[in-house]
Amino acid sequence: MTSEPSTVDTPLKKLVGEKTAKALAGHLDLHTAGDLVYHFPRRYDERGEHTDIRSLDVGEQVTVLAQVQRTAVRPMRQRRGNLLEVTVGDGSGGVLTCTFFGNQAWRERELRPGRWGLFAGKVTEFRGKRQLNGPEYVLLGEGGDGEAAANEEVEEFAGALIPVYPAAAAVPTWVIARCVRVVLDTFTPPDDPLPATVRATRNLVGIDAALREIHRPTSKEALYRARRRLKWDEAFAVQLTLVQRKHRAAAWPARARPARAGGLLDAFDARLPYELTSGQQTVGREVAADLATPHPMHRLLQGEVGSGKTVVALRAMLQVVDAGGQAALLAPTEVLAAQHHRGILDLLGPLGRAGELGAADDATRVELVTGSLGAAARRRALAEVAEGRAGIVLGTHALLYEGVDFADLGLVVVDEQHRFGVEQRDALRAKADQPPHVLVMTATPIPRTVAMTVYGDLETSTLSQLPQGRSPIASHVVPAAEKPAFLDRAWRRLREEVGKGHQAYVVCPRIGEGPQSDEEPPREDDNGRRPPLAVTEVAPLLAEGPLHGLRIGVLHGRLPADEKDAVMRAYAAGDLDVLVATTVVEVGVNVPNATVMIVLDADRFGVSQLHQLRGRVGRGSAAGLCLLVTEAAEGSSARERLDAVASTTDGFKLAELDLEQRREGDVLGATQSGRRSHLRLLSLLRDTDLIRDARAEAITLVEEDPELARHPALAASVAALVDEERAEYLEKG
């Protein structure tokens, strides 16, 4: 260890010792003084205020500030020795039992009633009581009166605000706090990268004060100022990156694809059997104008399930074909790609059957390219694409493989963009000689702040109207564990719908035996929960039990492609009453006769997934019903999430709920890159005004100095917060 001045690059082993540095690196990915200084507290406990123990979830890794209420020693049943049970409380009625195995009389003497401490461990449940098994702990004083106990960790918590860090079982929060103190004692921060004019205009404290106060706050006001400055740095880095990318993109060349009077698009509009909604018309004009410019369109089209995004995209594709180019639509699954192919052929009719009998004079061809095509069919399809006869090409990631060449790729439409890696999307765009126009579609509504932060370099269009004829969807939570009779009633309700001539979905989180699939949650649960229900196990039980006599089909991602297609065709034709499936039906599947969906183990799905799944019913004239079956206990966060989904069909409200429950940093691609998120403090929901202000300052700065040449420290800071990998993620997103 050293007392010499340290910088952001100083290795932690020089400051905190080899053993502690190894633990910080191995468990928390912290290697340098800068890593640790930017490892901010998750929250602050306050002396005299309690931690709400009742809000803790089973399975959660927690650190709680609590007071010892009582201790009890009893012999263990299965082996020799005693068990020490220490009941700790938060002062408001919430209690946890801390259990310690073995003869530990010294611990009983130490954990006397009245003592306050921080207790860290994983919440488990035993006989209806929440507990921590063998938790790590540090005691804060004698009898809760604030007098420091005789150990060095307590020095970290001498102030009124006690920092609680994101920690690991092997590196509890008080160890991190001690290391932070050691580092800050010698830490020399870099020169403040934020221009002085921005600091003054926005009333922001300096970086040195911010870093010290966030770890060891002298007051709530000082902590607020520190957090605001550090949040600003995160928001400003992201916005500068996005504004720079947008600035550069404006100079990229692209081939203009203006509309052509009397072409395919006009013919298509003339044969549409219904009138476009006003929203579809407005968005259509925006897209048409973008396509007519010599710079690549980069537009996000969001709209609820069934709002008519596909028709908007098809009209854009036809405009490009009219201008002599080709359009490719990338779908996340073969089921959806095949359905798009059938749906677009039906919409186009003779306009999409060039070279066939009865085709229109200026028709184009619509080709489907998937990994399951036979060799002969693949050669024929690839030739149609390479020679330009296929104006519209639909497919999965198979479109990205070598050997799929386009004559003149003018437009890329990406459906359900969140299902693709950025590298895949970029590989498709690279198949054009010049950057193609790009239209990204999603049925997962994106809160305004997320769009501003993640899609700040895209123009955004929203379809909020549903086409005429769409029916409302009622959703209800079915608490199977508390009220088994409700589940019986759910199956009877499904049979009633089938009796009326309708169809149903039953959705499970897991496929069954075999290798893990992308569409499945983890099978094993450390908290004692059973594995998620599986399609291959549930389907036969339903066939023999509550759905006996109904025609049941099975659909999941491990089926061969031709079998998947056959099942979907049979279901769409009405030859099956019930489809038992995984989330392969989440997007794009369109069977208007399906009116009821039962989602089993609904708490294993995310909010957006449930909203997408629910959109599969109510697509015809009959009302839709979605039943969310769960064993999650009333009052748990999982149950509250399901109650929220059941209470509204407003996708934007649900998207905000989804964002609240996910790590904020996921939006920056941290999950895609497998690296730690760099959005540590910024909340996309709570910091809307700050993000807006940061964007305004970023626009001003980039207009004056596009490459930040006059602000090298700021450019370096931005590069550290939003590295090249994340910058590319933002650009390609």
TrEMBL record:
The segment annotated Disordered runs over 509-531
Q: Which residues cross the membrane?
A: none
Q: One of this protein's Pfam families, by short name?
A: RecG_wedge
Sorted keywords for this record are: ATP-binding, DNA damage, DNA repair, DNA-binding, Helicase, Hydrolase, Nucleotide-binding
Any idea where the Helicase ATP-binding domain is? 290-463
BP GO terms, sorted: DNA repair
InterPro entries referenced in this protein's UniProt entry, alphabetically: DEAD/DEAH_box_helicase_dom, Helicase_ATP-bd, Helicase_C-like, NA-bd_OB-fold, P-loop_NTPase, RecG/Mfd, RecG_dom3_C, RecG_wedge
Q: Helicase C-terminal domain spans which residues?
A: 486-660
UniProt GO molecular function: ATP binding; DNA binding; DNA helicase activity; hydrolase activity
Task: Write down the PANTHER family for this protein, in alphabetical order.
Answer: ATP-DEPENDENT DNA HELICASE HOMOLOG RECG, CHLOROPLASTIC (PTHR47964)
Spell out the protein name for this chain.
Answer: Probable DNA 3'-5' helicase RecG
- Name the source organism: Micromonospora robiginosa
Which lineage do the record's taxonomy fields give for this organism? Answer: Bacteria, Bacillati, Actinomycetota, Actinomycetes, Micromonosporales
List the gene name.
recG
